[in-house]
């Protein structure tokens, strides 16, 4: 007995050591950006999260909860507390508070920067617990190791990526673990814990609807398979009742769980389980003949009544219909046709096939093997894996952002696949055939824990399998490290390139421009820019913006798009109506930065046309041959648009007239005609011409049009220069 106890202790200690190493790798592999660029917030959305966290830490939770942000969506403003998922900010604020309580002084910025890497270790642990519950602890360790370095998850959890997904994936997987635990043992306690983590998930990320629909679907499939049990009833009823009530305490969610179509499946399955439980109760109190008749009448009546009630409530507006984002998951062309603001976001595009290999590498091939092994056993928990795998695979295919929800189940299934392979070839054979020691699972098949595996006796066969597996895992680790270092560790506000001698060149135009705005403009200055840059403008420049990445008001965004697409004089009227002081545009034609506004211009036009079809038409921005051009062949509508003129103003001067100005992004020379501006003045252009800022002129004091006033001033200057030349 002491020998067994010692072996168990050694195995437990070994698992702890391996998990500690996995945690260390998960944390450290996400620090490339800090080592190379410094501790800085990345991307766009994280800047809003950081700004709101600063508000929370500085003024307290009550002020944060009731904060009206007058610096965004001018002149409308935004009620921040009622339009955010506060879980991320509260988590960072609590950690900051706790660290200060133990006299560990740390700036809130560093808490935000390192929050995602810290939670990545917890995500690895959650994947370990879930996989161990599904298979073995060895499979759990493998799955945790895969998850720690998988690029599909690292892409949203590197240091500086202070976004909701940084903590949400941990909550997603731990909620699923608790759900599986609750179903396996029929525990109300674990059901309540699953509800608590579900509430945390709801407070952190809008992707909580994935849980809201996958868990009911799992319960529904089990009922269809004839596996309804008290365990399932207790687990689901506890989770749904407590989780729904808790989620409704988040102001941004409110009554959505009982009033939107996305949540109706969870409510419907809750009702179905009550119905099945009642039927199961009646079965024991009436004869078989009467029971069958009563069952048919009861089920048909309840089903028809439920469908009729849902249709009526939807028609009355009590239950909201499916949203456009939901339809875009089933019809990839829906958003482009009807909601261009959704289609304009790059992470909402369908996933290219190479992206799966780029983000998952060898796991792409191990994933279906693990799912197949689960289908062979197909216990209640394995049904969940199959459902999760099928739906996550589909959703990841139609929207690149949802690769994030696919990655965890891929790691789980791959861990099961590799563990099964290693157990088969590495373990010593206990018998020449599979021997069942007694007992069956709920499916009627021998329970996995009650069956001794067939081992492989030949040593050479073991090596033939072990060496390729180890090599494959090593290549996977190398690939993940390379992708993390080169593709996912560069903050969007700081760019890096290589000089002719191979040395690294840092391009810091964004921070340069935002710093200039902060230091050289009035505190209440209003800046018009495309919505992509709204959060960064508010966070780094601390200036009022018209639109930002929240995209809640399509009409306001369309108005900004219209201003960019209209000729200069008409755009000036729009800017004056919006009290715009400065216009900011992003231009990459000089150094080859492809994420500039000219490349986004068609989306601005499409969004504007959806609201102002009489003023903006996309067709007018193409040539007669249907080409999108910026050179001399560009149509007049393109060349006269405000965005075009602001982007290419004075661009030809850089080439000194010896050669035509050349746009390195579009790979073409620009129009040879000089570009003049009369409604705005160039205020600042960054070193590499990526960010260009213009100041909007005030109306002329003499009542002249700005075009006439500019022409008069230009003529006066020419006459003065001529007189000076004549005197000389």
Summarize the structure.
With 728 residues, the chain is mainly alpha-helical.
How does this model look, in words?
The protein has 728 residues and is mainly alpha-helical. Among the domains are: 183-320, no CATH class; 508-714, Rossmann fold (3-Layer(aba) Sandwich). It is 60% helix and 6% strand. It has 31 helices and 13 strands. The strands form five sheets. The protein has a five-stranded mixed β-sheet with strand order 8-7-9-13-12, with helices on both faces. A two-stranded antiparallel sheet has the order 1-2. Strand 5 and strand 6 (504-507) form a beta hairpin. It is globular and about 115 Å long. The N and C termini lie far apart (110 Å). Mean pLDDT is 87; it is low at 431-452.
What is the topology?
Elements: H1 2-28, H2 32-37, H3 45-59, H4 61-65, E1 68-69, E2 78-79, H5 87-101, H6 108-134, H7 137-149, H8 151-154, H9 165-185, H10 188-204, H11 208-224, H12 230-247, H13 256-259, H14 264-283, H15 288-316, H16 324-330, H17 334-338, H18 340-343, H19 353-360, H20 363-377, H21 380-398, H22 403-426, E3 435-436, E4 451-452, H23 459-486, E5 495-498, E6 504-507, H24 509-520, E7 526-528, H25 534-541, E8 544-545, H26 554-565, H27 568-577, E9 582-586, H28 597-611, H29 636-640, H30 642-648, E10 662-663, E11 668-669, E12 680-685, E13 691-696, H31 706-727
Parallel strand pairs: 7-8, 7-9
Antiparallel strand pairs: 1-2, 3-4, 5-6, 9-13, 10-11, 12-13
């Amino acid at each position: 007995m002491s020998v067994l106890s010692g072996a168990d202790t050694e195995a437990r200690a070994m698992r702890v050591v391996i998990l500690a190493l996995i945690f260390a790798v998960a944390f450290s592999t996400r620090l490339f950006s800090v080592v190379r660029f410094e501790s800085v917030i990345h991307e766009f959305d994280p800047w809003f999260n950081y700004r709101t966290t600063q508000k929370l830490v500085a003024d307290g939770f009550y002020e944060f909860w009731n904060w009206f942000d007058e610096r965004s969506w001018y002149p409308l403003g935004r009620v921040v507390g009622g339009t955010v998922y506060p879980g991320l900010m509260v988590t960072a604020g609590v950690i900051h508070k706790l660290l200060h309580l133990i006299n560990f002084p740390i700036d809130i910025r560093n808490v935000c920067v390192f929050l995602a890497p810290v939670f990545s270790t917890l995500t690895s642990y959650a994947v370990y617990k879930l996989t161990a519950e599904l298979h073995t602890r060895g499979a759990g360790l493998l799955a945790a190791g895969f998850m720690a370095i998988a690029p599909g998850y690292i892409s949203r959890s590197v240091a500086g990526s202070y976004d909701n997904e940084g903590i949400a994936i941990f909550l997603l997987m731990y909620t699923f673990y608790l759900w599986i635990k609750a179903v396996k043992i029929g525990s109300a306690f674990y059901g309540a814990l699953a509800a608590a983590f579900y509430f945390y998930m709801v407070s952190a990320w809008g992707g909580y609807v994935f849980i809201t629909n996958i868990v009911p679907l799992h319960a529904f499939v089990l009922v269809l398979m004839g596996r309804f049990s008290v365990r399932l009833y207790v687990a689901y009823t506890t989770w749904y009742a407590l989780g729904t009530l808790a989620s409704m305490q988040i102001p941004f969610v409110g009554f959505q769980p009982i009033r939107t179509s996305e949540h109706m499946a969870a409510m419907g399955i809750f009702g179905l389980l009550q119905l099945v439980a009642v039927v199961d109760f009646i079965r024991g109190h009436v004869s078989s003949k009467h029971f069958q008749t009563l069952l048919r009448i009861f089920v048909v009546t309840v089903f028809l009544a439920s469908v009729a009630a849902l249709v009526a409530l939807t028609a009355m507006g009590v239950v909201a219909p499916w949203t456009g984002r939901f339809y875009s998951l089933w019809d990839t062309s829906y958003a482009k046709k009807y909601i261009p603001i959704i289609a304009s976001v790059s992470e909402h595009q369908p996933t290219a096939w190479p992206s799966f290999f780029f983000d998952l590498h060898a796991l792409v091939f191990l994933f279906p093997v693990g799912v197949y092994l689960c289908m062979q056993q197909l216990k209640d928990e394995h049904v969940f894996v199959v459902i999760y795998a099928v739906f996550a695979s589909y959703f990841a295919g139609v929207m690149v952002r949802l690769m994030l929800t696919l990655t965890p189940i891929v790691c789980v299934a791959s861990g099961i696949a590799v563990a099964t392979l290693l157990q088969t070839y590495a373990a010593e054979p206990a018998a020449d055939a599979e021997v069942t020691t007694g007992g069956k699972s709920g499916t009627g098949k021998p329970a996995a824990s009650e069956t001794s595996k067939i081992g492989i006796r030949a040593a050479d066969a073991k090596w033939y399998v072990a060496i390729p597996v180890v090599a494959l895992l090593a290549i996977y680790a190398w690939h993940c490290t390379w992708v993390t270092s080169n593709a996912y560790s560069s903050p969007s506000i700081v760019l890096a390139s290589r000089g002719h001698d191979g040395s690294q060149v840092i391009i810091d135009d964004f921070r340069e421009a935002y710093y200039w705005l902060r230091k050289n403009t009035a505190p209440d200055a209003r800046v018009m820019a495309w919505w992509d840059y709204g959060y960064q403008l508010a966070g780094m420049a601390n200036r009022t913006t018209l639109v930002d990445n929240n995209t809640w008001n399509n009409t306001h965004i369309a108005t900004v798009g219209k201003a960019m697409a209209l000729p200069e004089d008409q755009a000036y009227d729009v800017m004056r109506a919006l009290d715009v002081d400065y216009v900011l545009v992003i231009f990459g034609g000089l150094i080859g930065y492809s994420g500039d506004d000219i490349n986004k211009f068609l989306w601005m036009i499409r969004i504007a046309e959806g609201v102002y079809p009489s003023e903006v038409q996309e067709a007018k921005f193409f040539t007669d041959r249907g080409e999108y051009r910026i050179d001399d062949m560009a149509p007049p509508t393109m060349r006269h648009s405000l965005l075009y003129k602001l982007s290419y103003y004075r661009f030809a001067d850089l080439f000194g007239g010896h050669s035509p100005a050349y746009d390195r992004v579009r790979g073409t020379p620009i129009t040879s005609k000089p570009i003049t501006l009369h409604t705005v003045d160039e205020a600042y252009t960054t070193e590499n011409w990526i960010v260009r800022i213009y100041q909007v002129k005030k109306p002329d004091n003499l009542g002249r049009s700005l075009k006439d006033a500019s022409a008069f001033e230009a003529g006066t200057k020419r006459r003065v220069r001529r007189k000076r030349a004549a005197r000389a």
